[in-house]
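Q: Give me the 3D complex with zinc ion.
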Amino acid sequence: MEHTAERVVLARLPSGVEIATTVHTYDGAADGPTVYVQAAQHGREINGTEALRRVHDRLLDADLAGRVVAVPVADPLTFDRVSYTTPEQLDSVNPNMNRVWPGDLDGTLHERMAATLWEHVADADAVLDLHTGSADMLTHVVFMEGHAESRALAEAFGTDLLLSEEAGEDADPEWAARDFGGKLRVAATREGIPTITPELAHNKRLAEDAIEAGVTGTLNALRHLGLLDGEPEPNGVRSSGGPALARNHLGRVSAVDSGLFRADPDREVGERVEAGERVGTLYDPTTYEVRQVVETDRAGVLYSLTREATVTAGEKLLSVALPREE
Ligand SMILES: [Zn+2]
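A: Here is the predicted complex, encoded as structure tokens.
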């Protein structure tokens, strides 16, 4: 196994300061597939970065067949700001890096950064794009509906919930309106590269459960693809039954007004819910008047629930995934 770490310039700021990141390459003694894995293209989503540091330690001692290319900080701009998007001074056209893939070397800052990393993506036989949720979120893996190899990769990664997301003309009109075609996962899958987006839960702080799910899942993906020996290991907290397969329907329950949202104390992400179940209340903090009794919009798995209680009208409060019957 041979490891190299290369500093790569992704773009240049107006002052001339270079935006650079480190690309790690692990070349196995034996031949095998190439896997590209990155974290923190949303810079506040740091649990993937810590997971890759631990994967690094494991790979240095491993018998690897093939090549792993790992980028622990894909977007230094948002990483430094502990943010999800850049301020308008840096990229007013494309503030969200995960809407511009495969990027453009002559485009805006995010398009240039993505295009530089895309050179590694295009060479890969599989791609893992590590994210973490902003709300309290059940750790899960997203793959493109109908892409069997991506689904197999998601199953190997593990976690208790696998979400398939429809793309393009199959998807809800909101999908295109939100530029979801520019997600790394979608752009790479459309090139025929099996790709998954693990959502490891909890941003801005290192959460041990989420990090370990990321480490086990990444190593599981490498086992599944034959870069490492052995079978994928269990990677969920459910005692039995394997992962639940569900559909990411883009639906969500939003705040009908601004105020403080209090989730009912017995609510937890990961639980099965029926449609119309009460989950919490939104109230006016000055008068205590209840503005919304917040209820689930459908039956399924409650996988996201906001805990940042100060909400503005229209903000997402919870999401329920639709179980798939197969
Ligand atoms: Zn993200």
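A quick observation: The chain has two domains: 2-247, 253-323.
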